[in-house]
Design a protein that fits this description.
Helix content is about 85%, strand content about 0%. It is mostly helical. The radius of gyration is 28 Å and the shape is rod-shaped. It starts with a helix and ends in an 8-residue tail after the last helix.
Length: about 220
């Protein structure tokens, strides 16, 4: 009796774990959809205003600084405004090197922000089938023990317990598929956004070089 109770409990808790995985997956999906949608809208709005500005100094005075592209530009403008070159380790190097370093660091920050949650999706996608399989194997093992004790192995007796145990594997696969698809989708989106931001940072660096590294300094 205790063995059967333990078996039922383990299979039940396996299903609870899979349900938790599923809830976590869809929570991350909704958060990432919101994050990428907001980033795309903000980047499009800011880059349109940035390239419409008559000069880099005019772009520096824009008030709309929301979104990854705007934060990269703001980080670059802070370097161009700062005239304490060479006064400490943080400002060591030529102006171009300082700007490149600052833009690269901000780009990495944006990449890490967009990368958030992807490792969790990958982990759920890779482990869910095995969690479900564990529940199935455990359930079948104890179902066979109960059938042996009952002394009957007819189809009616075997099909019920084993069929119930197989549900865990099916749920594990059902949880894994959305997680894997979401991971691949958001990974591609992240690479696309980061590539666009890298292009923008390169263009910003070239514009700063043309302005002799001192736009908007009063």
């Amino acid at each position: 009796m205790l063995s059967a109770l333990t078996s039922d409990s383990i299979v039940t808790w396996t299903l609870y774990v899979l349900v938790a995985f599923s809830i976590t997956t869809w929570t991350v999906v909704f958060i990432k959809v919101f994050q990428h949608t907001r980033a795309e809208i903000s980047n499009r709005r800011y880059t349109r205003a940035f390239w419409a500005a008559p000069s880099l100094a005019a772009a520096m005075d824009q008030q709309n600084v929301a979104g990854p592209a705007a934060r990269i530009a703001r980080a670059g403008f802070e370097v161009l405004r700062d005239q304490s070159e060479g006064t400490d380790l943080a400002h060591s190097g030529e102006r171009r090197e300082l700007l490149e370093r600052c833009l690269r660091q901000q780009l990495q920050k944006e990449r890490r922000a967009l990368d958030g949650g992807l490792a969790l999706l990958a982990s759920i996608g890779s482990t869910s089938p095995f969690v479900g399989l564990f529940g199935t194997v455990w359930g079948i093992m104890h179902a066979l023990k109960d059938i042996t004790k009952a002394g009957s192995a007819t189809l009616d007796v075997v099909a019920g317990p084993i069929g119930d145990a197989l549900i865990a594997t099916a749920i594990g696969i059902a949880v894994a598929v959305p997680a894997v698809l979401a991971y691949n989708f958001f990974l591609r989106r992240m690479k696309s956004v980061v590539a666009d931001l890298d292009d923008f940072a390169t263009d910003f660096l070239n514009l700063a070089a043309k302005s002799a590294w001192r736009p908007g300094v009063r």
